[in-house]
């Protein structure tokens, strides 16, 4: 039964701050619980054999097993999908798992992917080694050069991949242009929106077809949990002939045609019912609960993150021991026009700079700061500092480091929400040891 | 370019879902892997009377199939269309002739002339929307699959 009073809210377009609190959740129908209940269960009792069969056949929306779906995780998925403006989302145990699953759903052996060369080091490793093991070919392109993307397309290309804000060099992707090139070739554009979050940029609004996140970062925002999520825009035509893995009868699901059957969420249904089912990297319900706690304050935290990041970037830009500050939000950044278009509320809070003294200078700074935490993560409410060449990007060759914008003295910052004076004080006293 | 938004009004969708009891599915396939069969199966589970309209079938999902809407012996609350878009004008004329409560065209079944015929004949139109998806959106189970229902409410309801 559909209740009459439901009709009042459906037509309203609620604001971002409302949706980050409410999307995907309603008061629990059984108990009235206002907070999202943690459904710490592996499995779900079926009403009868017919219902069980209908759930497994995907003829009915029903819970079967928490490797594939869980009501707490589902609230997180819907909330991120809603904030990004997609048709739906699937959560994973990590951002890297989400990224692998997003690609595995589209790719077959012998396929080809065109990717920005300015990616997170972990993503470079995954693409370079794991995808190669699956005999998927890869072409790295300069993310700033549209012709490079266009010229890299081959008959077996299946996707374009880039980051909204590159890690750590701060390249801003011209999403609309790259999406239009991808669509000219009937290809989807996949965008990693981890550094921007949907509060600062919603790639789907600019034509992206799939958005992925490491939820570990700003979505969760408190450095408590590892997780990832994939969002489908819902507008890509998977039945264009290039994607038989999504459109044709699936041998892994008794001949189901995912795109024909599920339309605007054909890809995410396949991602869940096959890829998540078979890779098994499911998000834990408790982690989903913590991510939801984080999402409730996403806009508030991001406002403060970008305010502090801008101040730290300006401080470093005028500091004699720092150079090459890559914060794209600086007026001097070559990405300024793209920031004004795609990131008008702020260019995130992660960037790098080159410390005087090269490798030893960077390490000396990190050794001497006392408030900034030396660790391999970003997007925590606490400020973080790391030396990429000896950590996150350690497995990369010199040429790859250069392509990723990482030099020997490069220090990466993730600016937190502390008192800005304290953050600047600590950097100043740390830099004093570099002198 | 057809303005689809006028055929996707959430209030109209909910009113149709709320008031309908009989749903004639034009182009309902007996193949259980086809989208039409998925939708018919789902609607039956949720208590609607599903009436197959397909000249190539005699019975689908345990229900007698009729060659056309004009042959259906009971009042039809919703005509749900799984046919090629160019078949829509003729179906819309039939929907008007039998005084159907609404004409609901599935994903991709977009035809402006068909929509105009139905609306001018007093039959509200929903177009490029899936009946199963919209039902799941408002009944609530769609939440369980991480799909974006777009719903925001703090009202406690006993729906599952």
Would you give an account of this structure?
The complex is a heterodimer of chains A (about 425) and B (about 160). By secondary structure, chain A is of the alpha/beta class. Chain A folds into two domains: about 15-295, Type I PLP-dependent aspartate aminotransferase-like (Major domain) (Aspartate Aminotransferase, domain 2), CATH 3.40.640.10; about 300-430, Alpha-Beta Complex (Aspartate Aminotransferase, domain 1). Chain A has 17 helices and twelve strands. Chain A has helices spanning about 15-20, 50-55, 70-85, 95-105, 120-135, 145-150, 175-185, 195-200, 245, 260, 265-280, 285-295, 300-315, 335-340, 360-370, 400-405, 420-430; strands at about 90, 110-115, 135-140, 155-165, 190, 210-215, 230, 320-325, 350-355, 375, 385, 410-415. In chain A, the strands form two sheets. Chain A has a seven-stranded mixed β-sheet, sandwiched between helices. Chain A has a five-stranded mixed β-sheet with strand order 8-9-12-11-10. In chain A, helix 1 (about 15-20) runs antiparallel to helix 3 (about 70-85), helix 3 packs parallel to helix 12 and helix 15 packs across helix 17. The termini of chain A are far apart. With about 160 residues, chain B is of the alpha/beta class. Chain B has a single domain, classed as NAD(P)-binding Rossmann-like Domain (Rossmann fold, 3-Layer(aba) Sandwich), CATH 3.40.50. Helix content of chain B is about 30%, strand content about 15%. In chain B, the strands form two sheets. In chain B, strands 2-1-5-6-7 form a five-stranded parallel β-sheet, sandwiched between helices. In chain B, helix 4 (about 110-120) links the parallel strand 6 (about 105) and strand 7. In chain B, helix 3 packs parallel to helix 4 (about 110-120). The mean pLDDT of chain B is about 95. The interface between A and B is large, with 59 and 44 residues.
């Amino acid at each position: 039964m559909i209740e009459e009073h439901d009709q009042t809210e459906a037509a309203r377009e609620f604001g971002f701050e409302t949706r980050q609190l409410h999307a995907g959740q309603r008061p629990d129908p059984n108990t009235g619980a206002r907070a999202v209940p943690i459904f710490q269960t592996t499995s779900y009792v079926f009403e009868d054999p017919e219902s069980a069969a209908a759930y497994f056949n995907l003829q009915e929306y029903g819970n079967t097993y928490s490797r594939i779906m869980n009501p707490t995780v589902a609230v997180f998925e819907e909330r991120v999908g809603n904030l990004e403006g997609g048709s739906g989302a699937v959560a994973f145990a990590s951002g890297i798992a989400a990224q692998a699953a997003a690609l595995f759903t589209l790719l077959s052996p012998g396929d080809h992917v065109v990717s920005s060369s300015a990616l997170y080091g972990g993503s470079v490793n995954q693409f370079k080694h794991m995808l190669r093991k699956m005999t998927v070919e890869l072409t790295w392109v300069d993310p700033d050069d549209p012709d490079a993307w266009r010229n890299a397309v081959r008959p077996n290309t299946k996707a374009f991949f880039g980051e909204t804000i590159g890690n750590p060099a701060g390249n801003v992707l011209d999403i609309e242009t790259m999406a239009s090139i991808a669509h000219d070739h009937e290809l989807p554009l996949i965008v990693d929106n981890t550094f921007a979050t949907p509060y600062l940029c919603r790639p789907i609004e600019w034509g992206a077809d799939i958005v992925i996140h490491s939820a570990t970062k700003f979505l969760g925002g408190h450095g408590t949990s590892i997780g990832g999520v994939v969002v489908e825009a819902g507008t890509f035509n998977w039945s264009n002939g290039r994607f038989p893995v999504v459109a044709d009868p699936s041998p892994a699901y008794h001949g189901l045609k995912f795109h024909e059957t599920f339309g605007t969420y054909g890809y995410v249904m396949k991602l869940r019912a096959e890829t998540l089912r078979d890779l098994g990297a499911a998000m834990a319900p408790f982690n989903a609960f913590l991510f939801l706690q984080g999402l409730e304050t996403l806009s508030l935290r991001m406002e403060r993150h970008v305010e502090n990041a801008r101040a730290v970037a300006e401080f470093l830009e005028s500091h004699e021991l720092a150079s090459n500050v890559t914060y794209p939000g600086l007026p001097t950044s070559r990405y300024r026009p793209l920031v004004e278009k795609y990131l008008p509320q702020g260019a995130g809070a992660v960037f790098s700079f080159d410390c005087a003294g090269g490798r030893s200078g960077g390490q000396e700074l990190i050794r001497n700061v006392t408030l900034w935490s030396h660790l391999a993560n970003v997007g925590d409410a606490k400020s973080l500092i790391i030396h990429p060449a000896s950590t996150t990007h350690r497995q990369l060759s010199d040429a790859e480091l250069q392509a990723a914008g990482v030099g020997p003295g490069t220090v990466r910052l993730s600016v937190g929400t502390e008192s800005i004076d304290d953050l600047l004080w600590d950097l100043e006293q740390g830099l004093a040891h570099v002198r | 370019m057809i303005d689809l938004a006028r055929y996707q009004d959430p209030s109209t969708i909910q009113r149709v879902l709320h008031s309908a009891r009989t749903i004639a599915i034009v182009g309902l396939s007996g193949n259980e892997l086809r989208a039409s069969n998925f939708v018919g199966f789902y609607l039956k589970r949720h208590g609607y009377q599903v009436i197959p309209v397909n000249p190539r079938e005699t019975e689908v999902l345990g229900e007698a199939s009729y060659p056309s809407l004009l042959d259906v012996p009971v009042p039809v609350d919703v005509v749900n269309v799984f046919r090629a878009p160019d078949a829509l004008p003729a179906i819309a004329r039939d929907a008007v002739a039998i005084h159907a409560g609404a004409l609901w065209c599935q994903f991709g079944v977009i035809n402006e002339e068909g929509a105009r015929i139905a609306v001018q004949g007093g039959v509200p139109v929903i177009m490029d929307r899936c009946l199963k998806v919209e039902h799941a959106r408002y009944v609530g189970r769609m939440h369980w699959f991480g799909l974006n229902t777009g719903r925001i409410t703090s009202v406690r309801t006993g729906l599952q």
